[in-house]
Write a structure and sequence with these properties.
The complex is a heterodimer of chains A (375) and B (998).
Chain A (H helix, E strand, L loop, with lengths): L1 E5 L10 E5 L9 H11 L7 E6 L5 E4 L2 H10 L5 E6 L12 H5 L1 H4 L24 E4 L9 E6 L9 E12 L2 E13 L4 H5 L7 E5 L2 E2 L5 H10 L3 E7 L14 H6 L15 H22 L7 E4 L10 H6 L7 H7 L4 H14 L2 H13 L7
Parallel strand pairs in A: 1-5
Antiparallel strand pairs in A: 1-2, 3-4, 3-5, 6-7, 7-12, 8-9, 9-10, 10-11, 10-12
Chain B lengths: L1 H9 L2 H10 E10 L4 E7 L4 E6 L3 E5 L5 E5 L6 E7 L4 E6 L3 E8 L15 E9 L14 E6 L5 E6 L4 E5 L4 E2 L7 H6 L3 H4 L7 E6 L6 E6 L3 E6 L4 E7 L4 E6 L5 E6 L4 E5 L6 E2 L4 E3 L10 E9 L2 E9 L3 H4 L3 E7 L2 E7 L3 E7 L13 E6 L3 E5 L7 E2 L12 E10 L1 H9 L16 E8 L3 E6 L6 E7 L21 H4 L7 E3 L14 E7 L4 E6 L3 E8 L3 E3 L2 E6 L22 E3 L2 E11 L6 E5 L4 E5 L3 E6 L4 E7 L7 H4 L5 H24 L5 H17 L4 E4 L12 E9 L8 E8 L3 E8 L19 E9 L6 E7 L27 E6 L2 E6 L5 E6 H5 L3 E10 L7 E9 L3 E6 L5 E6 L6 H5 L2 E2 L4 E7 L2 E8 L8 E3 L14 E5 L3 E2 L15 H4 L9
Helix pairs in contact in B: 9-10
Subcellular location (chain A): Cell junction, Tight junction; Cell membrane; Cytoplasm
Keywords (chain A): Cell cycle, Cell division, Cell junction, Cell membrane, Cytoplasm, Membrane, Tight junction
Pfam family, one (chain A): PDZ
Chain lengths: 375, 998
């Protein structure tokens, strides 16, 4: 038999229900069935909930498919603690981040941090997993290069790296040539760049969001990276070529060599970069730029329209004339001047009151009409 | 995706052709005073003046608008320039001991297919390098000290450091072999007792005999002066001077000459035929003695028919008390004036009769080239007043802090604006240019200067001082007028009789007076200037003197924000008592922002009687009709503490860097001492020191992080904009105010302006109601880059007209039927949003693509060279790399890109200002604007001709300078040159100078 602990809904914060009921291990054949069962047990049909369970170590793990459901069952000895939580946009604690959260990030700066999240283990549903970083275009890049995408979405971690000028070695038909290049000089501890493990100190930066940085100054590259920092795609030549994604056996010797190059490696298979890498970068240009456009990062500007703006008054002069109750123009305009804080607060309040389904649907519509948040 | 868009456009041949007809980049003319001048020459025959600069440029000036520029291949300083008189050629000597021959040649250069007849350019023809011959002279001995061009212009005498004189044929610049006059030749004829085993020293002066060509006067540093006959190669006369020589000058008749000396004295020597040696001068004096004086570097002796000769010399000041002054003395009989300049005297010359028939010099004017300005003294008028030159005005008389350009200024308005001012001259160019262009410069000392930049010559129009609005430390009874206008007031009974001349004055009484932003309405002649201490002054034009107190209003931009304390400067104290304001722009209202941080943005809407201003703390809206504040809005981010500390917050970092450098010094001393005894501990110390050094010289690295809301100075208001557009809904438009900040926020306010369209603020107009402002929209750009510019576009995608343009029918009315849009340019992106519902329409991510940041943005309308009536409105954008990008509007497709300013030239980039017709100005030095053009059609450049008699070329009788500058300003200027022009035409080109002839 199991213990089931149901956590409260957001708007009844101090009220938790605990239910304990028994269940035949063999009686449940799948996650969906179990889910429906819980809904009926708790009399919450139609309310979307998230399920979690506490494993032997006491870690909180999610239940959202058959696999981890069975895993959960097997760990029951004999009691299984299940935590049910209403799926709520404003619940940042456990299954915090869906795409909606990200959307409102711009506002977060304006709003005093009101939700203090308790430190808990952050494991979410697969659909709630957010991509922090990725290696992309592996199929079209030379093995010595790596294209890394860093998403500075929901996280509050800094991107966390520094770049510097340096000298890069290039193998040309005329021999080895020194050309100026831009390198990663430092990773900030705990930053995004360090925690992904995809970027390292002394990695040479070749492209930023599909644009070749050759011939560009350190400041230019900095500006490009900052401008793209919400969705940064950098192509690097890692200083440490050992961890390259090189599955083929023929590259083993190359991998062995790679430890020697600290500045940037000049390998035999990189010896004709003028043709090979150009064609590649051409490919990738169209590719990644298109990505940059489609992700709508630029359209994420926040537009606040005030409801305090009175509609058009047909007789403006008249209304001004008889506006004896109004104060002097200065004090009146200053007095009722809406501050950004007050507006962002008023914006968040309705989401609390609305039923969750309604909120999400209105969010959907907002996303469609160009992210204008109408109040 | 963007790339594909470019490519598609680039492949369209028709579009390419249109682009070529629209856009062309040219750097056209340099306005202002040449930076670091170091040589001066004058050709009295052609009336041309040449100035050489430290960077190797030669600039020739004729009548206003006639200019030629040449640049030496090597950027060495120009040491001397000499005209080959009447030939349109000149010779320059560079610091690297090379001689260059320049020529005004009629090489036709094509520009945009329009070939101009007879246009002349300055071109280098030949050069010659005088090398020391091995065995004979060392390298330094062959260093050229003086040049003398014989009046016949076929022979150049070159005096050297070693005392030798070489002769070069002109214009071939070939050395006459074996004819050089070396020191030993001269030494032979010197009496034994004068020789005393010492060298004669370098050649200090070479002067040709005024009456007997072929005889030259040679002055050696030690004091010996030799009259040398070139044809007989024989020393005709020797003047055994004992005092170290500085310069020589002939008296016109050739019967005597004057020498000036390093002890501050000068001597007159008689040239009597007969005896070979003269031991004593006729007379000798040290004008500023008896105490030790500095050298007289150059002396001129000019005879006058009606009286005593005029002596003019530079230097000679008493060493102890006035050794640091930069002076030129004019002396005639009892009259004695010591012109006291604010910068170093480079050179000077007099404008006088050169006609050989004439027995007297009769000087008309003295022209003094100083390091920072050109001063002209009228020698015909008693009291020798100074005359402002028509050009070469020192832009930087006080450092330029801002500038503002207006074109299409209605001619009558400009005349009104200009005629009322006593100290203003109107340049009667004939025919008057159709279009008047005005450039306003704001200066550190609180003045605003108005310049006419319609043509090649940038002429000063008017100077406005704002200092008298305030109670400052300096004398409150100071005359607001330029003190040079009444020399009597400044003449004091002192010795030497100093007179302050010139307007270059780099010292500001109070840095808070500095002008930061200017906005002028050319139709209503309302001017708003805003300064460093948060002052915003609204001025109106008046043609009478006025004594009034200025209304003062303060606007607290912090409002109710708590916890901030302003640590910067205090606000300026407004003057309590009425002050006399001269005719011209007179202050109406003074608005002071609190805290008194520097105004970062100002915008005037004269039709609505509103002025908006922004600082690092917020922005305000002021109704100067009712003299009330309408709105004050704080833009500070709660985390932004830096903004509150004011401009002095840098002190901390300075302290830190000082500490670091001291530490470094100490460290190097320590390690230096320890070196001889290498103990284990010292080794560790050394290693530590080395480590510390490494830390300090860590490679330059840049942090990659998105901009965050709490970056410092995020509240700085970068731009303000008034527009009559749709903010509330799509059917009703009305006045709006837009403000953009450093952190990527844009605030849009809907304004209630009573009586819009009926002439608010005019007498009888319906303007008694209050203006109200209500926040309509707030836009936070996601990338948070500073907002550089906000511009509202009408239904056709064209920028809205300026105030009054629509109501006075001066521009096509904006399209109010189709939906409007707003263009927001941040440092990183250009973006067009729809109105009234703000939704992104088009964008261009400049930084993401090019790695450059937007510095300046302007909307320009460029006309086609092919079709008279075709024009396009483009967005021009200057980046931090100094290049210009042009985009079409509102599609924001890139059109062309030009390199304009070096990216290291930060002040150049910061000073750039665009005109509406596709031209621009930027500072290339503190004193010079470079003008450039992006339009293929509108080019203001000097296309000038000098018609001259040249021995080898076509003979043209009269001298004619013509200026045919561009298609819009084709104007034929008068032929006469800047200084001292014979005949009655004088008044036309240079009215201010007319008194020279009275």
């Amino acid at each position: 038999c199991f213990y089931v602990i149901r956590t409260p809904e957001r708007n009844s914060l101090f009220e938790a229900e605990y239910r304990r009921f028994a269940l035949k291990m063999s009686g449940i054949c799948g996650f969906q069935e179990f889910y429906r069962l819980l809904q009926t047990v708790h009399h919450i049909p139609g309310v979307e909930v998230l399920l979690g369970y506490a494993d032997i170590q006491g870690d909180l793990l999610p239940i959202n498919n058959d696999d981890n459901f069975y895993k959960a069952l097997s760990s029951a000895n004999p009691l299984l603690r299940i935590i049910i939580q209403k799926r709520d946009v404003d619940e940042p604690v456990v299954f915090a981040t869906n795409s909606l959260q990200r959307r409102k990030k711009g506002l977060a700066g304006l709003r005093p941090a009101q939700q203090k999240s308790k430190p808990g283990l952050m494991i979410g549903l697969p659909q709630d997993f957010r991509q922090i970083s990725s290696i992309i275009d592996v199929d079209i890049l030379p093995e010595t290069h790596r294209r890394v995408r860093l998403h500075k979405h929901g996280t509050h971690k800094p991107l966390g790296f520094y770049i510097r000028d340096g000298v890069s070695m290039r193998v040309t038909p005329q021999g080895v040539e020194k050309v100026p290049g831009v390198f990663i000089s430092r990773l900030v501890r705990g930053g995004l760049a360090e925690s992904t493990g995809l970027l390292g100190v002394n990695d040479e930066i070749l492209e930023v969001n599909g644009i070749d940085v050759a011939g560009k100054s350190l400041d230019q590259v900095t500006d490009m990276m900052v401008a793209n920092s919400h969705n940064l795609i950098v192509t690097v030549k890692p200083a440490n070529q050992r961890n390259n994604v090189v599955p083929r056996a023929s590259r083993v010797s190359a991998g062995g060599n790679s430890s020697s190059g600290s500045v940037g490696s000049a390998f035999s298979h990189d010896s004709a970069p003028s043709t090979a890498s150009q064609s590649v970068s051409h490919h990738s240009n169209s590719n990644s730029v298109a990505e940059g456009d489609s992700d709508e990062d630029g359209d994420g500007d926040l537009i606040i329209e005030t409801d305090s703006l009175p509609p058009y008054l047909p007789h403006r002069c008249v209304s001004n004339g008889n506006g004896s109750h109004r104060e002097s123009p200065l004090s009146s305009s200053l007095g009722q001047r809406p501050l950004p804080q007050s507006m962002s607060l008023s914006m968040t309040t309705p989401t609390h009151n609305c039923s969750p389904t309604k909120t999400s649907s209105s969010q959907e519509s907002m996303r469609e009409d160009g992210n204008i948040i109408t109040l | 995706m963007m790339k594909f868009r470019f490519r598609r456009q680039g492949n369209d041949p028709q579009r390419e052709k249109i682009k070529q007809e629209l856009f062309a980049f040219n750097k056209t003319v340099e306005h202002g005073f040449p930076h670091q001048p170091c040589a001066l020459a004058f050709d009295p025959q052609l009336q041309l003046m040449a100035i050489g600069t430290k960077s190797g440029a030669i600039k020739i000036y004729g009548s206003p608008g006639v200019e030629f520029t040449g640049l030496h291949r090597d950027a060495a300083a120009v040491a001397q320039i000499h005209f080959l008189q009447g030939q349109g050629r000149l010779l320059s000597l560079l610091d690297d001991n090379t001689l260059h021959l320049w020529e005004l040649g009629g090489a036709s250069r094509d520009r945009g297919g329009a070939k101009s007849e007879g246009v002349v350019y300055l071109e280098e023809k030949r050069n010659y390098s005088l090398l020391g011959r091995p065995g004979l002279e060392s390298c330094s001995a062959s260093r050229v000290t003086v040049l003398l061009l014989l009046s016949s212009c076929d022979l150049l005498c070159v005096g050297t450091e070693g005392g030798g004189i070489h002769f070069l044929d002109l214009p071939r610049l070939s050395l006459r072999d074996n004819q050089s006059l070396l020191l030993d030749q001269v030494m032979q004829s010197i009496p034994e007792d004068y020789r005393c085993g010492k060298s004669l020293g370098p050649v200090e002066s070479l002067q040709e005999h005024p009456k007997q060509p072929g005889k030259i006067l040679i002055g050696y540093s030690r004091g010996l002066v030799v009259l040398w006959d070139l044809s007989t190669r024989n020393a005709e006369h020797m003047f055994l001077g004992k005092q170290q020589l500085e310069s020589l000058v002939w008296e016109r008749s050739g019967s005597s000459f004057v020498s000036s000396h390093s002890d501050g004295g000068y001597s007159v020597w008689a040239v009597a035929s007969g005896n070979t040696y003269t031991h004593q001068p006729v007379s000798s004096s040290i004008p500023y003695g008896p105490f030790p004086c500095k050298a007289i570097n150059k002396i001129l002796w000019r005879t006058i028919q009606s009286g005593c000769p005029v002596v003019l010399y530079s230097g000679g000041m008493p060493r102890a008390s006035y050794g640091d002054r930069h002076c030129v003395t004019i002396q005639q009989d009892k009259q004695h004036v010591t012109l006291d300049f604010t910068s170093r005297v480079i050179d000077f010359f007099t404008v006088h009769t050169t006609d050989p028939e004439h027995d007297y010099d009769d000087p008309k004017a003295l022209v003094v080239l100083l390091e920072e300005e050109l001063v002209v003294i009228d020698l015909l008028t008693t009291g020798w007043p100074s005359v402002p030159p028509p050009y070469l005005a020192p832009l930087h008389s006080s450092a330029i802090t801002t500038s503002c350009h207006l074109d299409n200024v209605p001619a009558n308005h400009l005349t009104v604006c200009v005629c009322v001012c006593v100290c203003v001259c109107v340049c009667n160019l004939a025919p008057p240019p159709r279009q008047q262009e005005l450039l306003l410069t704001g200066h550190e000392d609180g003045t605003v200067r108005f310049w006419n930049v319609s043509a090649v010559a940038m002429t000063p129009l008017y100077k406005l001082s704002t200092a008298n609005v305030f109670h400052t430390d300096c004398d409150p009874n100071d005359d607001p007028l330029d003190p040079t206008n009444d020399p009597e007031a400044l003449q004091e009974e002192e010795w030497p009789p100093f007179r302050k001349v010139g307007c270059f004055d780099p010292y500001s009484d109070d840095p808070r007076l500095g002008i930061q932003k200017i906005s002028l309405c050319k139709y209503s002649c309302r001017l708003v200037v805003a300064g460093t201490a948060g002052q915003v002054i609204v001025l109106g034009l008046s043609d009478e003197w006025s004594d009034h107190t200025v209304d003062v209003s303060t606007v607290d931009l912090l409002q109710d924000r708590e916890g901030f304390t302003w640590k910067g400067h205090d606000r300026l104290e407004p003057r309590a008592s009425p002050a006399p304001f001269p005719p011209g722009f007179q202050p109406l209202v003074l608005v002071q922002a609190l805290p008194p941080a520097s105004v970062t943005s100002v915008m005037l809407h004269a039709e609505w009687n509103l002025v908006a201003f922004g600082t690092s703390h917020g922005f305000g809206l002021f109704d100067y009709h009712r003299r009330t504040a309408v709105l004050a809005r704080c833009t500070l981010h709660p985390n932004d503490s830096l903004a509150m500390e004011g401009p002095l917050s840098r002190v901390k970092s300075l302290k830190k860097s000082l500490r670091q450098s001291f530490r470094r010094i100490r460290k190097s001393r320590v390690s230096g001492k320890k070196r001889p005894i290498p103990t284990p501990t010292s080794k560790i110390q050394e290693a530590n020191a080395a480590l510390a050094d490494q830390e300090e010289v860590a490679p330059v690295q840049r942090r990659i992080e998105p901009r965050s809301a709490d970056d410092s100075l995020s509240g700085v208001v970068r731009c303000l904009c008034f527009a009559d557009t749709y903010l509330r809904d799509g059917t009703h438009h009305g006045p709006t105010l837009w403000a953009g900040t450093n952190s990527g926020s844009v605030y849009a306010y809907a304004l209630e302006v009573p009586g819009v369209g009926t002439g608010r603020g005019r007498p009888g107009g319906e303007g008694s109601g209050c203006v109200e402002a209500v926040l309509g929209k707030e836009i936070q750009l996601m990338h948070r880059a500073p907002v550089v510019s906000v511009c509202v576009l009408d239904g056709r995608g064209k920028p809205l007209p300026e105030p009054y343009q629509a109501s006075l029918d001066l521009a096509t009315a904006p399209d109010m039927t189709n939906p409007h849009s707003v263009l927001i340019a941040s440092e990183e992106q250009l973006k067009v949003f729809s109105l009234p519902k703000v939704g992104a329409k088009t964008k261009f991510k400049l930084t993401a693509h090019e790695g450059c940041r937007v510095r300046r943005v302007a909307m320009v309308t460029v006309c086609s060279t092919a079709q008279e009536d075709y024009s396009e409105t483009s967005l021009v954008c200057l980046t931090n790399l100094g290049d210009l990008h042009l985009f079409n509007v509102p599609a924001l497709r890139p059109q062309v890109r030009y390199d304009c300013i070096r990216k290291e030239d930060i002040s150049g980039i910061a000073s750039c200002v665009f005109t509406r017709n596709g031209q621009g100005f930027y500072l290339i030095s503190p004193s010079e604007y470079q003008r450039f053009s992006l339009s293929a059609k509108v080019i203001t450049e000097p296309l000038c001709t000098v018609e001259l008699e040249r021995p080898l070329e076509t003979h043209i009788r009269s001298l004619l300078h013509t200026n045919t500058s561009g298609n819009t300003h084709s104007s034929l200027l008068e032929t006469h040159t800047l200084l001292a022009v014979p005949g009655g035409d004088y008044n036309r080109t240079w009215p201010r100078c007319s008194n020279v002839h009275k």
